[in-house]
Amino acid sequence: MGARRPRRREQVMTATARPRVGFVGLGVMGSAMAGNVLATGAFEVGGFDIDAERRRAFAEAGAVAYDDLAALAAASDIVLTSLPSAAAFAAVLDGLAEHARPGTVVVETSTLDLRTKLDGAARLAGAGIEMLDAPVSGTGAQARTGDLIAYVSGAPEAIERARSLVEAFTRAHFELGDVGKGTLMKLVANHLVAVHNVAAAEALGFAQDLGLDLRQVLAAVGDGAGASRMFGVRGPDMVQGRYEPASIRMDVFAKDLEIIGTAAAEAGTATPLFDAARAVYRDGLSDGLVASDTAVVFEVLRRQPRPNEPAPSGRRESTSITDRKEQP
């Protein structure tokens, strides 16, 4: 970000005023993070979303819902963005650059590609606004309980101003240096999420074929060396066949997978396990499992051909999806 520092907003606030935080994007993650911040009572919390129903629910939760981004930007000391795509981020950047006051800190928590984050930070800096690249790791269910990890990167002064906010909706956070380091760390984290989720699904399918009680498997294996966070978080959903409402939708996570794949290719990293896992998600999407939770990869794997069973015409045997069969 260079040596430039934004004008500190404290000069226009009283010593007793609560920081004014504006949340942009009130989906699963954004609304959950805002709810935890609101519950602390330490912040004045506002929010905006293009979806009127989300704004209504936000207001009913006791926060201030703004009808337009301009009003929220002008009223906030810190803005937190939680957005589904680079296109949505670009649209929000326009509003923030035009309407947020110089000295505003933007805490950008979305999972986007590195270039998008760096370009966004540069554009906001031109308007005197400091952006922190701070993607979060965790599911929507974890977000509701404050069980998130944030990977925060950006100017030290901006991190200092936003630290209490970040601590209000996370279990822990890591301060990683220059803008962009947060995104790179998130890509590594999501690489493991993708692989571990599919590994958990495959292992539970194996256990089912062996005739084991899957509830016992969750308890016994989950307490051993083979456990993973995804086995503990997604395993119960897989065993119960509980895929909606989604904590992380398949189509949203697919966007993250493409970002990881591109970054790995640019870095020259061989990712055979990730590539195999990504093929399972792609098969799920091709079968119409767009809005389902990513735990549904369990079903995707259970529909694949068994050994010595021919694959349907036109599909790769290693990633194909057959018609649903009755499970033992």
TrEMBL record:
One of its GO terms (biological process) is organic acid catabolic process. The keyword Transmembrane applies. The chain crosses the membrane at residues 21-43. This is NAD(P)-dependent oxidoreductase. Keywords: Membrane, NAD, Oxidoreductase, Transmembrane, Transmembrane helix. Residues 302-328 are annotated as: Disordered. Residues 180-298 form the 3-hydroxyisobutyrate dehydrogenase-like NAD-binding domain. InterPro entries: 3-OH-isobutyrate_DH-rel_CS, 6-PGluconate_DH-like_C_sf, 6PGD_dom2, 6PGDH_NADP-bd, HIBADH-like_NADP-bd, HIBADH-related, NAD(P)-bd_dom_sf.
